[in-house]
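TL;DR need structure tokens for one chain.
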Amino acid sequence: MAPSQHPSARTLLRWSRRTALALLALLIALAAAGAIYQVVGEWRDARRFPQRGRSVQAGAVKLNLDCTGQASPTVILDSGMGVPAVGWIKVQPEVAKFARVCSYDRAGYGWSQSGPPPRTSLQIARELKALLDAAGEKGPYILVGHSFGGFNIRVYTGLYPSDVAGVVLVDASHEDEEERIGSVLPAAVRKQEKEEEDRDEMLERIFTPIVIHLGIQRFSVAAGWADMPNSLSKDLVEELLYLERQTKFRNAVVLEDKSSAQSVAQVRSAGNLGNRPLIVLTAGKPYEPEPLLTKTDLEKQRKIWIDVLQVEEAHLSTRGKQIVVPDSDHMIPFERPDAVISAIREVWSGVAKR
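>> reply
TL;DR here they are.
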């Protein structure tokens, strides 16, 4: 027969159970409070941040188009992957002072409906054409593409050459970027980077919805704990987050990323930009410090990006030139909007005079 449990052991077990139940109840209460905080915040955000632009039926999908200014040729702005149209907020108002300028939300972004897969540059270019035609906008246009947006406008130019009079590429993606940037790194580092990227992607896919729906991300921004760019106001960060928290937005970004190999092939097939005026803006600080990389590795990457790949993009046109923005990272529209505005004005003025 087993000996009876010592009273102190029974007391400890009872208190352990009570503590565990209390902690569980506390966690449930905090989760419920966070979820309510998020719902109330979304309700407030929907009133704080009204739609910038108007919804236009562009073929099978309704897209948001925001046009301001008057003088032709019209400037069209295409954002980088993961950035809604409001990401041009520091650029568009200034360009509107001398030209008509339109930003738009790609399918699934911002105020636009989700679009059919695959979310390739070819699909995006066709939807942009349908959007501009349905809205009654008149070309030829000055196309401006940041990052992945550079792929889209190059494919657009290949499809509709008579629509495009000039181009500005803002630290735009290069079709050989991944292969050639990676080639300067040791094989072991490339392998470890890939493993970490896969792990981070999995964790982000699992935890991002939780962090959003329980109000954790919202609270961290409100409390000033979030890592926010110094170049953006708190209100603008909150507006961007309001749009980026939406499930359709996160899905659209994932689908664009999954289709990147197809987009790369489409850019290669799009051809060059002929003799159109072209300015390539290049970030002087394109890469963040990476623990896996030495300073030598980072400098090699930087030199290939600035002195090789971006120069090749400038050579897409016989009238192309590169301008390096030494004090900016990849997000030039946020960090140095004046450089973007100046480049647009230069290309626009040249086309307008002709």
